[in-house]
Every structure is written in structure tokens, then in C-alpha cells.
Amino acid sequence: MCVLVNLLDIVVYSIVWLLLRRRAGQSNTMKKVFKSLAAIMVTVVVGWLLEGFVKAILLPLANFPISQWYYWESIFGIFINVASASNVFIMYTF
Fold first, then answer.
1. In angstroms, what is the C-alpha Rg of the chain?
2. CB distance 69 to 23 below 8 Å
3. What is the C-alpha separation between 18 and 3, in angstroms, rounded?
4. Which of 12, 64, 81, 84 has its CA 20 to 30 A from that of 2?
5. Distance between CA 48 and CA 5 in Å, rounded?
6. pLDDT tens digits along 21-53
7. What is the pLDDT of residues 41-92, one digit of tens each?
8. Phi, psi of 41 (to 5 degrees)
9. How far is CA 8 from CA 5, 16, 44, 78, in A?
10. Where are the domains of the chain?
């Protein structure tokens, strides 16, 4: 499921990027917008892919008891929250 969300996220950001690029041109302001969109997309995709990798591959191979999976998923779920919360800071920085 998280892979589909990531793919949809990439598609949506790419469509927004293409629409903005076509309508706005190559001004310095639009370059900043493109940089911020790319940075937001990378943080969100990396956060979700890391969590999906841990859940689908790392936890089954690490031989942790199933009772501990919740804690490990919660720890790596922090990356998703950081990616979601960082949008404001990325937009402000760029």
C-alpha cells in the first residue's frame, strides 16, 4: 500500500511541477518553487519507502519477535512524521 502512495505522490508532484513550469517560465521565484517541490517530494518518498522497507523486509529477516514489531515500526514511523512536518520548513528555506 505504501508503495502505491509513493508512486501516486510522485505522479502528483510531477504534474504540479509540469503545470507550474509551463505556465510560469524560468524566473528565479519559480526556480525556488521547483527546488522546494523537489525537496518535499524527496523527503516524503524517502520517509515512506524507509518505513515500508523496514516493515516488509527488515523486520521479517531480523527475526524479532512479532510482539516487538510494533515498537520497531513506531521508531521508523518517525521518519514519516518528520517528512510530513518538514514541508513548512522546506518551503520557508527555499
1. 17
2. no
3. 23
4. 64
5. 9
6. 777 667 777 778 778 888 888 888 888 888 888
7. 888 888 888 888 888 888 888 888 888 888 888 888 888 888 888 888 887 8
8. -60, -45
9. 5, 12, 12, 21
10. 2-93
Asked if 17 and 31 count as a contact pair (C-beta separation under 8 A), the reply is no
Q: Answer whether residue 7 shows pLDDT above 80.
A: no
Closest residue by Cα to residue 5 from 93, 86, 83, 85: 83
> Residue 43: which residues within 8 A CB-CB, separation 6 or more?
82, 83, 86, 90
C-alpha cell at 87: 514541508
8: its cell numbers: 501516486
